[in-house]
Amino acid sequence: MADRTFSETTVEPTTLITCLLRHGDDCLIMSHRLGEWISRAPELEEDIALGNIGLDILGVGRNLLQYAGRVEGAGRTEDDLAFGRTERELTNLLLVEQPNGDFGETMARQFTFDVYQDLLWSRLATSSDETIAGIAGKALKESRYHLRHSRNWVVTLGDGTDESHHRMQAGLDGIWRFTHEMFIDDDIDRAAADTGIGVLPSSLKADWDRIVAETLTEATLTVPEDPAVRTGGRQGVHTEHMGFILAEMQSMYRTYPGAKW
What is 11-255's CATH number? Predict the structure, then answer.
């Protein structure tokens, strides 16, 4: 891919690498969670759909981690960055590491994340870094499908039977405190936005609120009023679930370092 890389922008390499790792880690962990549904989804078509969505998201994560490795220039590959970093070195949102739970819980997590990613890729598709813009442009095409898929399930379950409505509302209530972290700005975000390579997470919040509220109204669901806010993922401070994810995801790489298939 011919592009204008970080060397032709005014951003510090550390800022660019951090941004790439954050979004790459989000994709990596979310794709793992979706992969856990394979052979366990409520119907065969949904089993295939969740697997394909997970692969789409993993593909975006791979591109981001590959680029982070190139910018870093230390010889680390996408595999090294995905499987060789410790829990404290991974900077994904806490939302994506939350357990699947039942199907309603998974759709609540997926829908809130899909809205965020669709808005994010839409903005990053005009990034001043052409590699990021290219990755985001491709991701945006896929995220539109992902959002349509999860939104349809939220509406179907919310406006379905009493039981499906209850489970969908419970799923939203359970993950709501983790959604606020998506929109918190820090110095890295501000530096990235100032140079045009990234966006301020807070700038996505109004559109996210609107899309989520409109969808929940159609689904006869209530926007949760949970005052608690859980953060820390961007700083490498994770929930108790993260260790179990990494134990499974990284075991082969750590047991047989450098193995080739």
Answer: 1.20.1260.10
